[in-house]
Amino acid sequence: MDHERMDALERRIAALEQRGEAGPDAAVEAGTFWALQGLKARTPEPGAVLFTGAVSTPAGAAEWQQGHAVDDLLDEEWAERSAALAALAHPLRLRLLQAIVGGTATAAELGALEGVGTSGQVYHHLGQLVAGGWLAAQGAAATPFPPAGWCPCS
C-alpha cells in the first residue's frame, strides 16, 4: 500500500473516531431543545406536555409519543392516577420493574435477585405493579405494559 493511501485511510479513521467520541448529542447540538421547539410551534397557549421515547432494552423495543394540552391536564381528576403512582411507592417495586425492563422475565428469576424477599413478597409486589398498570401478567412471566409506562410520568 502506498504512503498517500495509508495517510488518507488514517485521516478517515481519525475523523470517524472523532465523530464517535462526540456522542449522539453532537449531531443535534444546535437544536438541543428540538422537541420543545417543535411542540411550541404546534401548540397554542397555554401550552402542552409531551412525553416521547424510543428505547431498545432486553425486554424489547418500544416507541411512544403522548401529548396533552395543559387545559386537559388541569381538567382531569388527578386522584384517579393515585393507584399508578402508589404502585411505584416502594423501592422494591421499582427494583423489580427495572429488572423486568432489563430482561428478567419470570417471577422465579425475580425471586432469585439479592434482597427481594420471599416468593410471596415478590408476587405481592408484582401484583401491585399489575394493579397499577405498570405490568401485564402472562403466566409466570411479567412484561412491561404498556411500553409508554416505562416513563413514570405517563
Automatic annotation (TrEMBL):
Pfam families: HTH_20. It comes from the Bacteria. This is Transcriptional regulator. It comes from Arenivirga flava. InterPro entries: WH-like_DNA-bd_sf, WH_DNA-bd_sf.
